Amino acid sequence: xxxxxxxxxxxxxxxxxxxxxxxxxxxxxxxxxxxxxxxxxxxxxxxxxxxxxxxxxxxxxxxxxxxxxxxxxxxxxxxxxxxxxxxxxxxxxxxxxxxxxxxxxxxxxxxxxxxxxxxxxxxxxxxxxxxxxxxxxxxxxxxxxxxxxxxxxxxxxxxxxxxxxxxxxxxxxxxxxxxxxxxxxxxxxxxxxxxxxxxxxxxxxxxxxxxxxxxxxx
Length: 218
Ligand SMILES: [Zn+2]
Ligand SMILES: [Zn+2]
Fold this sequence. Notes:
This protein is of the alpha/beta class. It has a single domain (about 1-215), classed as Metallo-beta-lactamase, Chain A, CATH 3.60.15.10. It is built from six helices and 14 strands. It has helices at about 35-45, 60-65, 70-75, 90-100, 180-190, 210-215; strands spanning about 1-10, 15-20, 25-30, 50-55, 80, 110-115, 120, 125-130, 140-145, 160, 165, 170, 200, 210. The structure holds zinc ion (ZN) (2 copies). One zinc ion binds near residues 59, 164 and 172. One zinc ion binds next to loops.
């Protein structure tokens, strides 16, 4: 697969484009917050002749869904996320005020619910859905067990896209909309730290890490 990361909007959200050799693409939190950022995303998609098949959200805090309206409109896909976070799409104005993040156009409703154990798949790329509540009720991580060749590199270890569940050296805050630190820690320990140690983690904010490195903190 090809993996491209973008860091978007004033909250520095890491968004990802995963694509296969046929040009099918999965977008994870492509949270473009301005026209320039939308154009940067569109340019990458056009230049690489990609067809967007899925628009995935790790969770529905506003900083992660700012690009949804643009992506949905431009590529004809609907956002997919966990049902327990869906209520936050009704609170986009409130979140915009609370976070001080301008809302240019609200995200459309979810077109598909993703739950624990589901998989999202295009040819050659299979993502497993892992539900870890606590940063938000419906927070999910996407786990790619066998990424194969990534950006021309062979024998790449498993990849994890956990949104704001876990960061390099810390975890997500639990003081927002149904957050719960106990549930978060329990979920991280039982569902993420049990993944292979060499798994490369691409958090929703900040630098990459590995499961082995994060295990030290728990
Ligand atoms: Zn968040
Ligand atoms: Zn975030």
